[in-house]
Write a structure and sequence with these properties.
By secondary structure, the protein is mostly helical. 58% of the residues lie in helices and 11% in strands. The protein has one domain: Orthogonal Bundle (Arc Repressor Mutant, subunit A). It is built from 5 helices and 2 strands; from the N terminus they run H-H-H-H-E-E-H. The radius of gyration is 17 Å and the shape is elongated. Residues 8-106 form the HTH arsR-type domain.
Length: 108
């Protein structure tokens, strides 16, 4: 069987692409912003913050969790979500390298 498109790129490139894809929807960006604002784990309030159905919010939360942007802990019958600081550290390092490189470029 042939190689997949992701096989031709580094683990870091694939990780950044996965994170970027997860952030590629405004509802997911809104969820991240909400979790940052409340600065605590949230169990059910997220649905009240977005103009989306519960099932849709759950799907967005799943995508964010699969990308490592949020963590989910089971508390009773609910899953409580919060920011995964490790993944945001990866993003910080990645974009810091880009900013430094672009700032030092002597290009058109």
């Amino acid at each position: 069987m042939g190689a997949t498109k992701t096989d031709h790129f580094t683990d870091e490139q694939n990780k950044i692409a996965t994170i970027a894809k997860a952030l590629g929807h405004p509802a997911r960006v809104a969820i991240i912003e909400y979790l940052l604002k409340v600065d605590t784990c949230i169990c059910g309030d997220i649905v009240n913050e977005l103009p989306l159905a519960q099932a849709t919010v759950s799907q967005h939360l799943k995508e964010l969790k699969n990308a490592g942007l949020i963590k989910g802990n089971i508390e009773g019958t609910a899953i409580c979500y919060c920011i995964d600081e490790n993944t945001f550290g990866i993003l910080k390092d990645y974009f810091s390298k880009i900013i430094v490189t672009v700032s030092n470029q002597k290009c058109c």
